[in-house]
Amino acid sequence: MAENGTGIGAAVKRKEDMRFITGAGRYTDDIDQAGQACAVFLRSPHARATIGGIDTGAALQVPGVVAVYTGADLAADGIGDLPCGWLVKSKDGSDMIQPPHPPLAVERVNYVGEPYGLVIADSLQAARDGAEAVVADFDDLPAVVGVATADQADQLHESVPNNQCYDWELGDKVATDAAFANADHVASLDIVNNRLIPNAMEPRAAVGDYDAASGVYTLHTTSQNPHLERLVLAAFVQVAPESRLRVVSPDVGGGFGSKIFVYAEETAVIWAAGKLRRAVKWRAERSESFLADAHGRDHVTKAELALSSDGTFLGLRVKTIANMGAYLSTFASSVPTYLYGTLMAGQYKTPAIYVEVRAMFTNTAPVDAYRGAGRPEATYVVERLVETAARDLSMDLAEIRRRNFIQPEDFPYATPVALTYDTGDYEASLDKALRHIDYQGFGARRAASEANGNRRGIGFSSYIEACGLAPSQVALSLGAGVGLFESAEVRVNVTGSVTVITGSHSHGQGHETTFAQVVSDRLGIPLDDVEVVHGDTARSDYGLGTYGSRSIAVGGSALIRATDKIIAKGKKIVAHNFETTEDNIDFTDGIFAEHESNRSMAFAEVAFAAYVPANFPLDELEPGLSEKAFYDPGNFTYPAGTHICEVEIDGETGVPTIAAFVAVDDFGHVINPMIVEGQVHGGLCQGIGQALLEHGVYDDAGQLVTGSYMDYCMPRADDVPSFTVDTTVTPCTHNPLGVKGCGEAGAIGATAAVMNAVTDALGVKSLPMPATPETVWKALGSAG
Amino acid sequence: MYQFNYRKASSLEHAADLQANAEDGVYLAGGMTLIPTLKQRLAAPSDVIDVGGLDGLRGIDVGATVRVGALTAHAEVAASAEVRGAIPALSDLAEGIGDAHVRNRGTIGGSVANSDPAADYPAAVVGLGATVHTDRRSIVGDDFFTDLFETALDEGEIITSVEFPVPAQAAYAKFPNPASRYAIVGVMVAEVDDAVRVGVTGAGPCAFRSAELEAALAGGLSVSALDGVSVSSGDLNSDLHASAEYRAHLVVVMARRAVAQLT
Ligand SMILES: Cc1cc2nc3c(=O)[nH]c(=O)nc-3n(C[C@H](O)[C@H](O)[C@H](O)COP(=O)(O)OP(=O)(O)OC[C@H]3O[C@@H](n4cnc5c(N)ncnc54)[C@H](O)[C@@H]3O)c2cc1C
After folding, report:
1. Distance CA A222, CA A288 (A)
2. Which of A603, A617, B61, B224 is most buried, taking the most CB atoms under 10 A from its CB?
3. For residue A23, with 0-12 CB atoms within 10 Å meaning exposed, 13-18 middle and 19 or more buried, which class applies?
4. pLDDT at A469
């Protein structure tokens, strides 16, 4: 692979950055349609209340106010509920219970910030004034906030007894119980995986427009997957048929999962645009984002690991209560099940695993996928438990892992929790990480910290993730409501430049660069001759967008398929030109050449020939050079690695500082190492953020206490160290690029490493996250 | 924001006049506190009276005392070589406020007038024994902060400058809130006119002098003088980030760290 140049493996600077850093990016809020009105949502101030009535009279009198709509108006127009796209079944075979989720609340509200109406006006100011003039008559009810006791609290939804959405299991209970019965030692932990609030840099926004002449609706919105948005709005919510609904996600400033989902706001905005025959724009205030973006994590877990006295893992038992929030968000049900329970083998040969997950409703914002989605929670369980076991048995942190790692010769390896890992070399990453952190020198560093009155600890996290979300067959059999393939189109223009259209979506990942690198490398044409188009249902074939580190593994593979078809077609054209057969034509470095002759055609010449089809045998060879592919992989990809964190704790204040952080990841082949390193850095910041800083907190009345940056602690650059990032490579065995995906690894691996290090420094078994200075200070006292 | 009348004051008298004639006027200096409050519709003044153009309220005068004009931005105080020569602790404090944007816009007058319990300057006002000058009078620093967001300022009174005595020695130590980076606890320890003063911000409803710490340090500014000393948590703030007990602990730790800078 090329280290220099612009091909696969080259650290090319991102094509899109010039537009971003010069303020030329075009985000949803930059889009203004002629005659556009502004929308402001009416949001519940109560965590739980019935709506007695909504008086819109005064609001309609406010100058500039055009309309006030409530849930009843949407219902009257046949606008359906926001659906959850993944059906999970309970232990007893029954379907999960999905309570009604009208885009705008009708009879009752179930979380602070839940929208129950919207005011549309000529100006934002007038819409705000109008919103303040609406008088809603709420009958306040006691809120159900704590997830652990939600089954004993008031019932929130008529159709959901005990507030339980499902009670799911995975694995062999009998075998696992037997493993525990025969164990020499059982390590156990009670774990709370803290609620996080995603905080994309760009808040959510939507501009709905309706063209009366064509009857076409156009929705510009901050979506990670515009096709899914269109599908849901057309097929389930029934705003308009897909053929007359265009969804565009222009530049999107981050998502981390929170922009995968179909929300109330864009639904109401596009519907209102049709109703008013006028464009309507909404953009979230930051405080609305805190309240009404889907949150992440929020589990309460009891986990146990059974071991023999030599540290061999015999069985793992996990019991989790997962908070769904007030309603089921688009993919919420899959996160604590198929993206969580299936990861419990980690990198280890644990022979028996049994996982139970109960999903509960509470009066909090809906919880759904957030960077890593289920896999950080799983890694946290496994890696905290492994390190607890090592401490219990006085085993070395590396040694206990080595003893249990799945070995290179074991692949493909079928875990007891439904996945088959294709490839990996876990010791290679561990060894590299040990060298980088200078594991041998830790004792001396710890002594030096202690001599200064401080504490020092070290923690590992040998994580695995299932990425490249796909394959459709597996997903469908497990309850997914959509396929998980990806589409690509490679359109060669007449003079040889190439337009690549992908169903994947970039909201910071850098597709315009990496996807162009792949195509330019394969076609042997300059990087600048490749333009990547994404994010518009009118331009690309149906695609599934970006999440679950799937872009290069699935979208990139589709691209390879389409590119291969271009090369095949090119060979036909050249064969026709040279009056030979296509198996006599080779294609390398952008040149089509005939075997055993010096005749050749450059890529651009072939493109031109394709569109100026001299004497083409038209029944065998069509003009044009444009190919499509849909790629559906045979398996997930399994990025894995070892992260090691060293923390120092201020002995007087409890402030934990990350002294060193090493991440060694196996992403398979890497297209652009600079972009990958950036993805790792960002993920690590979020993983560290969860461990030390971030916490979405509701009070007992269900009010969000951390509703702004004054209280919700986002990681800043000076909260993290200068990372040591390295890679090992075992290429994925089942996709053409041998890639695995890198978008979530940092967030998946880091949290456990940090908390292992903090608890090691303190000499305590566990500590709630985030490990704030006060939490740590208290533990300093209790640990003596 | 709600609609309001924007008024630009051309002199102190004009500002006071605009205020007297407004239904509900509010002064605007750097806007770092006021503008976010307006944007969130948490305040609905009839008139916003911009005093930002009053050049007489700007600038730093270092002599027997350090006099900082009310409109002087935190960044100017942080960058002033004269301030650093006279009261390095004040430069350090200003340098640690917010971020670069906030330091370029935010003013000492606005900070002091607001009496945010977590703001930094109030620790210097009480810790150094400053005098707050207004268009009407001079207020002793010890009497200036009266409660949460409350000061001794009368309706419409304008701060013109804050005057700090030059201490024999002084140091400021801050424990920032990890989220907002305001002070969870900030402690200014100073020796002024042969007396030890300890100003504390962040910990209570407003900045105060710590009698316990001043007593402990009266015999001399040494870290060991604080060994075993504790302050009562009774009147201290408790929130998501720090309980009153933790704040009480941090007050002593920050005092030790301030003293350690001196010795
Ligand atoms: C992101 C951020 C971080 C911050 N971090 C910190 C921090 O770490 N530490 C810290 O101490 N502060 C911090 N601040 C607050 C900052 O220092 C403010 O600028 C300061 O508190 C107010 O100054 P201002 O000039 O902006 O006042 P304005 O916002 O203009 O006014 C604030 C109040 O003071 C009144 N006022 C202003 N000037 C006068 C005057 N001359 N006479 C009488 N009344 C007056 C106004 O009427 C208003 O009520 C932060 C602010 C932000 C936005």
Report:
1. 15
2. A603
3. exposed
4. 79
Where do the structural domains in chain B lie, given as residue ranges?
5-50, 55-262
Measured between beta carbons, the chain A residues lying within 8 angstroms of B250 are: 653
- Answer whether A699 touches B (CB < 8 Å): no
Residue A4: per-residue pLDDT: 59
For strand A299-307 and strand A280-283, is the pairing parallel, antiparallel, or unpaired?
A: unpaired
Query: How do A185-193 and A299-307 pair as beta strands?
Result: antiparallel
Residues 6 or more apart in contact with residue A579 via CB below 8 angstroms: none
Q: What gap in Å lies between CA A49 and CA A109, rounded to an integer? A: 5
d(CA B155, CA A27): 45
Q: Which of B142, B191, B189, B132 is nearest to B167 (CA)?
A: B191
- pTM for the full model? 0.97
| Token pair 């849901």 in the structure block, residue | A232
Supply the pLDDT for residue A477: 85
What b/e readout covers A159-186, taking b as 16+ CB neighbours within 10 angstroms?
A: ebeebbbbbbbbbbbeebeebbeebeeb
The token duo for A613 is 């089809």
Q: Specify the pLDDT at position A2.
A: 46
Considering chain B, what is the average pLDDT of its residues?
A: 97
Residues B7/B50, Cβ–Cβ less than 8 Å: yes
d(CA A541, CA A487): 6
Q: Which domains does chain A show, CATH number per domain?
A: 31-141+201-254+259-292 (3.90.1170.50), 371-467+637-783 (3.30.365.10), 485-631 (3.30.365.10)
Residue B227 has pLDDT above 50, yes or no: yes
Tell me how far apart the alpha carbons of residues A405 and A480 are, in angstroms, rounded to a whole number. 31
Contact yes or no for A689/A706 (Cβ under 8 A): no
A369-393 pLDDT per residue, tens: 999 999 999 999 999 999 999 999 9
pLDDT tens profile A565-576: 999 999 999 999
Length reported for chain B: 263
pLDDT in tens, A651-710: 999 999 999 999 999 999 999 999 999 999 999 999 999 999 999 999 999 999 999 999
Instruction: State ipTM.
Output: 0.96
Euclidean distance between the first and the last CA atom of chain A, given in angstroms as a whole number: 54
CB atoms B249 and A125 under 8 Å:
no
User: Taking CA A117 as the corner, what is the angle to CA A113 and CA A121, rounded to the nearest 5 degrees?
Assistant: 115
Side chain identity, residue B164 = F
Can you name the CATH fold of B5-50?
A: 3.30.43
- Considering only CB atoms, A710 lies closest to which of B179, B246, B250, namely B179
Amino acid at B188: M
Residue A590 predicted with pLDDT over 90: yes
Ligand 1: which residues within 6 Å by Cβ?
B 26-34, 51, 70, 97-98, 102, 105-107, 109-111, 113-114, 116, 119-121, 158-159, 181-182
> Mean pLDDT across chain A, nearest whole number?
96
Confidence at A1, pLDDT banded by 50, 70, 90: very low
- Percent of chain A predicted with pLDDT > 90: 95
The A591-594 sheet, strands edge to edge: A585-588, A591-594, A600-602
Number of Cβ atoms within 10 Å of the Cβ of B236: 23
Q: Give ∠ CA B42-B45-B50 in degrees, rounded to 5.
A: 110
Cβ-Cβ contacts under 8 Å for A756 (sequence gap 6 or more): A383, A384, A387, A457, A458, A459, A460, A461, A645
* Phi, psi values for residue A574, rounded to 5°: -65, -40
Task: Scan residues 244-263 of B and list those with Cβ closer than 8 Å to A.
Answer: 246, 249-250, 253, 256
**How many H helices and E strands in chain A?**
19, 28
Tokens 């040889």, residue located = A496
- The CATH classification number of B55-262 equals 3.30.465.10
Q: What is the largest CA-CA distance in chain A?
A: 89
